[in-house]
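--- STAGE predict ---
source: upstream dedup step, 1 unique chain passed
mode: sequence only
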Amino acid sequence: MRRSVRLAARAIEEVATQNHKFLQTSGEASRIKWKEEKGNNLRKGTSSIKSGTQQSKGKKRAREKSSTEQDHCEQEGGNLVNSVVTEEKVKPEIKRVKIEPGVHATIKSDNLNFQPFHTKLIGAHVSIGGGLHNAVSEALSIGAKAFAMFLRSQRQWASKPLQDKDAELFKEACSKANFSPRSILPHGIYLMNCGSPDEETLSKSRVTLVDELKRCERLGLSLYNFHPGSTCGKITVEESIARIAESINQAHQETKYVVTVLENMSCQGNTIGGKFEELRDIIDQVQDKSRVGVCLDTCHAFAAGYDIASEKGFEKMMDEFETTVGLQYLQGVHLNDSKGELGCHLDRHENIGKGKIGVEAFRRVMRDPRFNGIPMILETPYVSENIYQKEIKQLYAMMNLKKKKKDWIDM
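--- STAGE serialize ---
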């Protein structure tokens, strides 16, 4: 039995190495399969959508000028991933095997009856009040298969050092709860601006980035999500992008393996990352491509002008993401409806199905294999104590192809 486990783990590691050490096997396998089916027109509606959107891929939208600064009012999530031992979060028996960092594998019993929703890792941003380990308990209480959190206070530069005891309690809680390293995405503090024109702010941001990546390493995490930055209206977009990339490169030199995940923004004010071209330009200047990725926020994308509310607009956005950035860089999703209209450039999150994006858009997301195996995090408004639990159930219900609007429960 042990020999078969070792052989299986070795086979998985070889496949991962041949493709790209950065790619995670669970989600990438689904995306590769989807691309093959797409070429044969097996995916419903793809061929007609592709023909109608091909000419628009090369066009660039003009950036709206504004003197307003980035709005950080919405609470956002984080995710924890990548430890030496990886496993898929399911109740039945799972056999775990130790592998090298960066390579993820799960060896399952042949007789397990896995349901389709296990391909999606849905959760929410949870609190670290009372200790980091409490985030795990809260995630379990809402039925999450993924979760996000801050690693420290998100609204101040100063922070207490991470204690060894706290780190061990967190790792022990994750192990007992069977949370996979591919299911947790920590979020950076709001004050960081790695593209800032102000030297003091830039210096503090770079120190914070290194500090938080090191915290991730001590907690056994491999993903770290943060907002790229802002020009503050004082430097060009190109100059700010160069500073962001330089900040990432410097942080990578001082840390070991954590992937820095850039979040797409809403084009509000002078923020960077609302356009996929800006994310691509940052990635192009990052030296270690295996340590950079993107988290796709649905509210931000809609506010930036990507019409994900319609089927045609959703496919157009995903085609543009694939050709401009690359699906191999997709490391997470923030699931948020939008209070603002399409292209409003306002970062205003709404509960799923209650905003301008609508239920059907999230149903498409939930049934799209390109989002398999990556953390999908709710950052919707906290309107009731069990709101996240309800939304998680509703999102998983959307994957049932036999149900339509009956899968939506009014809140």
